[in-house]
Amino acid sequence: MPDASPLLRVEHLRKVYASGRGEVEAIGDLSFTMMPGELLCVVGPSGCGKTTLLKCLAGLLRPTSGLVKMEGSPVTGPSPAMAVVFQEYGRSLYPWLTVRGNVELPLRHKKLSRAERNRRVADALDAVGLPQSARSHPWQLSGGMQQRVAIARAIAYRPEVLIMDEPFAAVDAQTRADLEDLVRDLHLNRGISTVFVTHDIDESVYLGQRVLVLSHSPTRVQEDLVIDLPRERDQLTTRALPRFTELRTHVYAQIQRAKRAPASAPHPAP
Ligand SMILES: Nc1ncnc2c1ncn2[C@@H]1O[C@H](COP(=O)(O)OP(=O)(O)OP(=O)(O)O)[C@@H](O)[C@H]1O
């Protein structure tokens, strides 16, 4: 019997920032669950609270009210069960460390033997297609390769949930397509549970098993859409499917609605 308990449960999450200009209610009332092994994409209008949500998920930000639960336990601080990959790969890697050193760094906080650390680093670099680059420094690599190193560092840590915040926004289109396929591959072949935030509607539909469309700020779930595309996807045939076009058109329309009004009953799924 597969495990039917959610891995991640977000219950009535609300986040209000206190700023010099008064209070900013970034997240209004947000609830959703994620099952183990899922790849969940999050999209929404610009400034709707996506990064705020991710920071609350990862325990980097304390919600004003509501709860994030990881395997049933409330997340109350930076969670060792989660690894985050940000857009700014340039700033997230240490230039004075080799690729190997960067990937190994967080493992030093785990009680692992040197042999196990070596094994995990080699395995992670293999998974992202960079087994030959272990001794290079980040600045010797292209932007796309640097982002692969950041992903390798996250998966070497073996998090319960991989959180990605617009990770491919700063790379060119071809590199982006390759990195999207890497995320699909990690999901299919390693069962890594992933929350992937993106501005790109096509990317959310191509990658996700589900797409969570957020309303404008103070954000709520505008729609929780199941992406019923084939499990095996590729950039050419999947994006050419009529169903792909239907789904991306639907998500686009939902975001347009989300920009105009607070969360309302979604249009029926296409
Ligand atoms: N530290 C802060 N103090 C005050 N307000 C903040 C703070 N961080 C974010 N906000 C506000 O909260 C709202 C949501 O911001 P957030 O960065 O989470 O949105 P986002 O969807 O990730 O944005 P983007 O689409 O630009 O990536 C915005 O109105 C933003 O101005």
TrEMBL record:
SMART domains: AAA. One of its GO terms (molecular function) is ATP binding. Residues 8-241 form the ABC transporter domain. PROSITE patterns: ABC_TRANSPORTER_1 (PS00211), ABC_TRANSPORTER_2 (PS50893). InterPro entries: AAA+_ATPase, ABC_transporter-like_ATP-bd, ABC_transporter-like_CS, ABC_transporter_ATP-bind, P-loop_NTPase. Pfam families: ABC_tran. The keyword Transport applies. Keywords: ATP-binding, Lipoprotein, Nucleotide-binding, Transport. PANTHER family: ALIPHATIC SULFONATES IMPORT ATP-BINDING PROTEIN SSUB, TAURINE IMPORT ATP-BINDING PROTEIN-RELATED. This is Lipoprotein-releasing system ATP-binding protein LolD.
